[in-house]
From TrEMBL:
Gene3D superfamilies: 3.40.50.2300, 6.10.250.690, Winged helix-like DNA-binding domain superfamily/Winged helix DNA-binding domain (1.10.10.10)
DNA-binding region positions on the chain: 133-232
Keywords: DNA-binding, Phosphoprotein, Transcription, Transcription regulation, Two-component regulatory system
CDD domains: REC_OmpR, trans_reg_C
Top-level division of the source organism's lineage: Bacteria
SUPFAM superfamilies, per database record: CheY-like
Keyword 4Fe-4S tagged: no
UniProt-recorded name of the protein: Response regulator transcription factor
A Pfam family assignment: Trans_reg_C
């Protein structure tokens, strides 16, 4: 069985050591670095299955490190930060993170979130699942699940892994209405909790990237009080 390696990037050694301690108990391999440049370099040098990145790191912060990582890699990324406002969380998710954990944190909750992200990532990368996926063409969009690419009227659209998963889920079931709870369960692989606006944030940024603000016929429609549906 393939061993799983997790990157921990935090300039506070005590926090990195605490996270490592709990992840080692789960049987994961850990690599610790102290800044964003080292985090990007570590991912370039060896296979990393998941990264936990502090946002406020020296030399290169978590936001920019994530942008550089996302340019070439699709591994799950969890932000760890003392920034706790909704705007901070939205900024983190929009920049490409898959999850956001605030400090101080419960180590066991962080481990649970790591496990959930790894399960989701492994499900997406199973060869059998890829073989059953089909390319979706609708409304000027070409969505390729094997290459995980989105092309809009001949132009490649850069979207995050979670945005892709949401778009493919909706587009592969045209006109079917999915609630935020259903989308969260399908894409994140875990139960939705009250007050969670993660799906709404991802839908909002996805619409912006697809030019929904200037399109007459919207691709992703909101069914008020129910959820979202795709109309190509």
């Amino acid at each position: 069985m393939k061993s799983i390696t997790i990157l921990i990037a935090d300039d506070e050694a005590e926090i990195a050591d605490l996270i490592e301690l709990h992840l080692l108990k789960e049987g994961y391999n850990c690599i610790k670095v102290g800044d964003g440049h080292e985090a990007v370099a570590a991912i370039q040098k060896q296979p990393i299955d998941l990264a936990i990145l502090d946002i406020m790191m020296p030399k290169l912060d978590g936001y920019e490190a994530t942008r550089q990582i996302r340019a070439h890699y699709n591994l799950p990324i969890i932000f760890l930060s003392a920034k706790t406002t909704d705007l901070d969380k939205i900024t983190g998710l929009v920049s490409g993170a898959d999850d956001y954990v605030t400090k101080p944190f419960n180590p066991m909750e962080l481990v649970a979130r790591v496990n959930a992200q790894l399960r989701r990532s492994m499900q997406l990368n199973q060869p059998a699942a890829a073989n059953t996926s089909v390319v979706v063409e609708a409304g000027g969009l070409l969505i390729n699940p094997e290459q995980r690419t989105v092309v809009l009227y001949g132009e490649m659209i850069e979207i995050t892994p979670k945005e892709f998963d949401i778009l493919y889920l909706l587009a592969s079931h045209p006109k079917k209405v999915f609630s935020a709870e259903q989308i969260f369960l399908q894409v994140w692989g875990e139960a939705y909790f009250e007050g969670n606006n993660t799906v709404m944030v991802h839908i909002r940024t996805l619409r912006k990237k697809l030019g929904e603000d200037v399109r007459k016929n919207k691709l992703i429609k909101t069914v008020w009080g129910v959820g979202y549906s795709f109309h190509g």
